[in-house]
Structure prediction request, 214 residues.
Amino acid sequence: MEARKDILGRLQQQAAPLPMPSAWVSGRQFEDLAAEFERALTAVDGEVIRVNSFDDGMTALGDLLAELGVEKGVVNGERPLLTANFSHQFPQIEWHIVGLSDGNLRDGNLRDFCAVADVGISGAAAALAETGSVLIESGAGKSRMATLLPPIHIVLLPAARITADLFTWAAAQNAPPPTNMTFVSGPSKTADIEQTLAIGVHGPKRFIVIVYDQ
Prediction:
């Protein structure tokens, strides 16, 4: 027993922290990141709407909500969505803003509201042009239920947050990651049963990204 302690003690004294390897820098380059992102996302049944500004994006969102006949919507309480007054702009819809109106739910808790909402709206921390993926991060005012439970997920994405690929995004990170990060690449899909593709089984069946220039 003493010999074991002696060996382990000597190993602990000799152990030294090893530096983490630097992130691999991708050589992928795209002439138009937004165009490549649109191509990749539409290839996996996602949808992209291109507009010039955030205000134009809100106008496009309003047209989309009217087209879809939305009656209830949940919005993640993050910037720049917090700058928009959804109840004022779209008064015909019952809204819940995560983190702001949590105490005013008329239909129970947040989970219950998200389960009956027609649409969930969020921002995005980043997007990958190569795969058409959108990065949704956890944090204050953000709920995964808002992006998973409603049958339609709409993202308002600044074009400046589109990067070439996962490696390029990772190389640019200089802060600890949030508790949860989810890369969304189109609507929910599964082929577990007899290898038959089904859409919308484990999440939204429509995934729409409104890309706006800043």
The chain has a mean pLDDT of 86. Helices lie at 2-14, 33-43, 54-68, 86-89, 110-116, 144-148, 166-171.
